[in-house]
Amino acid sequence: MYPDNNTVIEVNKLTKMFGNFTAVNALSFKVYKGEIFGFLGANGAGKTTAIKMLIGISNPSSGAAKVAGFDVFTETESLKKSIGYMSQKFALYDDLTVTENITFFGGIYGLSKLQIKEKAAALIADLNLEAVSNNLVGALPLGWKQKLAFSVALLHDPKIVFLDEPTGGVDPITRRQFWELIYRAANKGTTIFVTTHYMDEAEYCNRVSIMVKGNIEALDTPKNLKKLFNAASMNDVFLKLART
Questions:
Q1: Considering its fold, how many domains does the chain have in total?
Q2: Residue 239: inside a domain, yes or no?
Q3: Residue 85 reports pLDDT greater than 80
Q4: Residue 224 belongs to a domain
Q5: Could you tell me one molecular function GO term of this UniProt entry (predicted)?
Q6: What is the Cβ-side half-sphere exposure of residue 77, based on CA atoms within 13 angstroms?
Q7: What's the rounded Cα separation, in Å, for the pair 243 and 228?
């Protein structure tokens, strides 16, 4: 489906232990340029622990991984500059305005003042935030906050964006709008690595992996997984895996 020269994430037996507890157990997989890769599982399955290793903020216990061509053990600073990240908890500053947040993170990402000005104007127009651009982010509805946070994560044109439970707590309409933003980014060549416990969102991904108790128990396209498990939906696939 994807040529290996388009590999942007390569993971080999990546493991994370906390004392005697294995939170992530010998994960191995590849993710490709422009792919929407779903990293699925119930709360506590190990998704967030795995993503923290892949973005360079948690040291693996063993194994190997490269993200955007950089080693997660030895090249974490270069790795961080090549990716975008949106955490489970809202990542922007409530006590700064929309424009101030964009300017602040543009500076963190190393953009010039001219680049920040141009990108801020384009972002605000794209999200139809002109009327609230000078309002505090804390006053915005959650759905607007989430879409703004995603757009800010793309501000420096990263090769890969990691999204950790990005649609948690938002209404179904806002979730669909958020996924429209994901598709637009992927169509431009950005790889999207998204964790979620909403199994219906698996249908929007090119491929999905399903984690159960720190292990990847299945990895394929949604269509192939449903066929393999004789299931009508990805939720049915997940429930069958959870019982094993």
A1: 1
A2: yes
A3: yes
A4: yes
A5: ATP binding
A6: 0
A7: 16
Q: What span, in angstroms and rounded, lies between the C-alpha atoms of 164 and 189?
A: 20
Domain that holds residue 239: 35-58+75-243
DSSP state string for 73-109: TT-HHHHHHTEEEE-SS--S-TTSBHHHHHHHHHHHT
Crossing angle, helix 142-153 and helix 98-108, to 10 degrees?
A: 30
- Dihedral sign (CA 122, 127, 129, 135): negative
Contact present, 102 and 155 (Cβ < 8 Å): yes
The answer to whether residues 8 and 31 touch, using CB atoms and an 8 Å cutoff, is yes
What residue type is assigned to position 186 of the chain?
A
- Check if the beta carbon of residue 225 is closer than 8 Å to that of residue 234: yes
CATH number at residue 140: 3.40.50.300
Weakest mean pLDDT among 7-21, 142-156, 165-179: 165-179
- Amino acid at the residue 209: S
